[in-house]
Write the structure tokens for this entry.
Amino acid sequence: MAVREQVYGFFIPSVTLIGIGAHKEIPAKIKALGGKKPLLVTDKGITGIGMTDQIVKLLKSEKMDCVVYDDTIPNPTDENVHAGVEVYKKNKCDSLITLGGGSSHDCGKGIGLVVANGGKIHDFEGVDKSTKPMPPYVAVNTTAGTASEMTRFCIITDTSRKVKMAIVDWRVTPGVAVDDPLLMMGMPPALTAATGMDALTHAVEAYVSTIATPMTDACAEKAIELIFQHLRPAVANGQDINAREGMCYAQYLAGMAFNNASLGHVHAMAHQLGGFYDLPHGECNAILLPHVEKFNLIAKVERFAKMAQLMGENIEGMSPRAAAEKALDAIKQLSTDVGIPSGLVELGKRYGKDVKKEDIAVMTGNAQKDACGFTNPRCPKDADVAAIFEAAL
């Protein structure tokens, strides 16, 4: 707890709908917020499986007009955002619905920031740079990982610098979040694994954050417990509705934790891999997580020991340090079981990218400036970050 004057915030959407069939409430909720002609921000993958049409038909059944922008890419860029802003303005939209995982939500948040405040998305890099409220906004989640449907975080790639901009702004928190496990049933095993490990990273980093509170601790602890119960079954059988619903709650709880306790150097470093190589965020987090937390362990031994217990490890009779090591072992085993690549080089090959040791110096410098690293429990020097990148190769 704080030993000096310190005020902690707790940010969540005004309304969250979780459960089977929750997506049917989308028209009512966008209307309740004052929206009449929403821009639906999503991606080609969601459109390709028919989910975009499903939501458009739902809106039309309630006599609501809707414009679709489905050009969001996996690591949304400044160009992505500005193109969406033009579509919003050209069609005289008055509200936002985002449909998908973190990429769609982040892109939609960026569009809303620029529509409301003017300027360019780059103007909002950092913490609470906006001055005007977002348009009415409903975020509909289709993955169990990023929790972007309920957070004040917006991550956008600056294409000129090849850097992911961390935008942390309470105004981008959606008015309504919708988490329906039915919309997650179609996720393939690899995406289920990647998003699930992203959620685990959120919970772990929030739990050892320098600004963790009893409220964020409660969320992080339950999220860790649920992820270790449900991620393996969800990867093994995507039609397991109980596992899907369990991960739905787990990722939301992890979001509540990191949305308020922030993150650490796993995310600070993963953002560089995404910005530099356009690699998938969840898998970058999964690979970096045990390496960064090995570095962090001496700062939070008791917390890592508690995590081992939450992960189902038997730590009876162990010293706190030995128990803490079991948490790192459990994270590695979970990654292996759900099919995460063993290192960054292997991950790069999977996506046709050449992850090189020569790029570590640039990524290290950028990681040290990333806002997510400010609450890491241990302060790494440049050499420490570079060594972690190298160990993760």
